[in-house]
Amino acid sequence: MVGIVTYGVYVPLWRLDLSEVQAGRKGERAIANFDEDSLTMGVAAGMNCLGDIDRSTIDGLYFSSTTSPYREKPVSVIAATALDLRTNIRTADFANSLRVGTTALEAAVDTVKAGSANRIMVIAADVRIPAPGSDLEVLLGDGAVAFIVGRDSDVTVEIQGSYTVCDEILDVWRSDLDTYVRSWEARFALDEGYFRVLPAAVSGLLVNTGLSAKDFDKAVLYGPDPRRHRQMAKQLGFDADRLQDGMFGSLGDTGAAFALMMLAAALDSASEGDRLLLASYGNGADAFVLKVVRRAGVAKGIESYISSKRLQRDYKAYLRWRGLLDMVTGRRRPPTPVPSASSLWRERDQVLRLHGVRCTQCGTVQYPPQRVCTCCHAKDQFQSYRFSDKKAAVFTYGIDYMTPNPDPPRVFSVVDFDGGGRMWLDMTDKDENELEISMPVEVTLRKLFTLEGIHNYYWKSMPARF
After folding, report:
1. How far apart are CA 385 and CA 357, in angstroms?
2. In this predicted structure, what is the pLDDT of residue 328?
3. What pTM does this model have?
4. What architecture is the 2-321 domain classified under in CATH?
């Protein structure tokens, strides 16, 4: 038996009030902060997915996104490093289609079935940019999800079958030179694409498995908007109470992660023995039969993340976050130095894995790594120590109202970690009016800046969401 062992989701803290986009429009959609992208969100989902699982048991990581921060560099390797996985694992990037999340899931299932690995993590994440003023601007959202695929007694959700259809059509696309998502005339895109191809995949799956719509407790279907989502369910023979909510008014269409995030939401409320239909779409369609063996017991489900939010009502600030509006100030600052590739390689453990050291003589924890213990002065008597999964609290902080920042003001924090260790970190996703000494925080991978094509990632503190 091969299937899903556990899963984790990540929804950014920020929401864009849709009335700021279209007058009278109700609802909101999740938007990544200025220092987030598909990689940082994918790592956050992966951290939530791993929980207390022994990271040495993960044999591979498949990363799927249509908005990878690099066109020529595997993001799966960066994610595996930030998640502190072994170096002798399989990694692969899946890109260029809205259904790459389910494509990566199917590839992971095949890898485990073949015996090439026992556990594969699949991450799907997207930050797609709609053209300002377009219909897509009220539909697209940002988010990420991660699944661990395994076998036998580990499995909580068995994947009993799958069926795939590929189809060449220009309905929704983005070239390597485009900033915005493009789409063709809606009637053509829907009638000749979505409403023709996704039912073909589902029909093929049902024929192969001998099942019918009445055999499923829940349908998890990709949909371009709420109306067409409901229409597709009706066409496939599912009534409204068996259709998984698309979360269009609270989350939005999260691209490569969308169908899998809906699956995570369905699993949050599923019962033992439930059978689910999963179908995604994008230049073809993938369809799956899943059966819940037992509940995964995920601590933080998608509803928890959707409920934890802050509204962004400043449309210009949102445009700045997406790089669509320049932030002009009257203050001149020294140019930011280009990151050194050799330094980033040399210090990748402390920068991406967030490794410090623990003294083997007295147990003192330090960051950054040192050769001499600050407490007992033992030399070169250390073992590596991971901070990224540790809880922390604010020791002190400072607020800078003068430095230009896409999300002003800039907050500097000094945090103390449970188990020892103190670190200086920028703070993100904060409200400067709620800061206080000893407030609980967590660390999160974020993008500091991009220069000469190099994305400089490092960890920041953020107020604990839960």
Report:
1. 5
2. 65
3. 0.96
4. 3-Layer(aba) Sandwich (3.40)
